[in-house]
């Protein structure tokens, strides 16, 4: 017994064992764990997309039937998320402290590693660098564009010089790209040009000047900022306030003239809104006449004779009209 299966040797496969290896067939490669995981994730995503409404309805029904349990799970999920954020922040702080402490050593190690990789396979190295740069740019595209715009705004000459040098070195490529872009966006470019022409026509018709905006250089902006800080940062004491009031105050004659004009404008406006209070006799008489005319118009409307409404037989063309007069007796009327 011990001779058959003793020791550390595994037992031999029995004749009826279907799992024994077949020497006539090569071994099938085992699926990669990462590929299997990706396949399972894709399968789960397809299932969730296909049963989105059923899963939402089932989840809502479960929450209605298990409100306390749902709240408990929600609190537990929030605590776990807070703990994950706290752990990630602590980990980041540890990494930052370690990097600050060993910055020179880490930079030297990185340079050495990159040099070895570049010497081993230069083509693969540069391809890897370009791919890494593209991936970094896609992750930080907004920040990179913002920094580029800020540099161009601070120093427009640098960007202009770089563009000129690039155009001289790649003239044909730039022209080809421009032609290709025009062919692909001809309608949009034409519509934009027509819109600009119409706006320019409206500007000329309105008598407005051309739009003449320019970017302020960095040196000029810094000078303006320094001048503003110096002007508004001056200390203000009582003597200076008195001097400013004397220098920038309004003369008394101008104040009195402004008050007279204001009183006159208020009086004119009140007289227009209340004609019966005007000072001239002619204005008061015309106002009284308009008031009496309005009263007479109302009285006339009340006393005006109006023809009584016609009877229904007048509206029927087949009915003979009634007599316009009637005699009370049987003779000639007197």
Global morphology: extended
Q: What is the ordering of alpha helices and beta strands? A: HHHHHHHHHHHHHH
Low-confidence regions: 1-27
Helix content estimate: over 70%
- What's the story with the biggest beta sheet? none
Q: How much of the sequence is in beta strands?
A: under 5%
What is the radius of gyration computed over CA atoms, rounded to a whole number of angstroms?
Answer: 48 Å
Structural class: mainly alpha
Q: Ends: how far apart?
A: 162 Å
Treating each run of at least 4 consecutive H or I residues as one helix, how many helices? 14
Classify the oligomer.
single chain
Mean pLDDT, nearest integer?
81
For the secondary structure, the number of strands is: 0
What does the model show?
- The protein has 334 residues and is mainly α.
- Among the domains are: 170-204; 251-302, no CATH class.
- The chain is 72% helix and 0% strand.
- It has 14 helices and no strands.
- The protein has helices spanning 2-5, 33-50, 52-65, 67-101, 103-120, 122-139, 141-154, 156-169, 171-184, 186-206, 218-232, 238-248, 252-273, 281-303.
- α5 (103-120) packs across α6 and α7 (141-154) crosses α8.
- The longest helix is centred in the N-terminal third of the chain and has 35 residues, at 67-101.
- The radius of gyration is 48 Å and the shape is extended.
- Residues 1-27 have low confidence and may be disordered.
Overview features:
disordered N terminus, single chain, 14 helices, mainly alpha, 334 residues
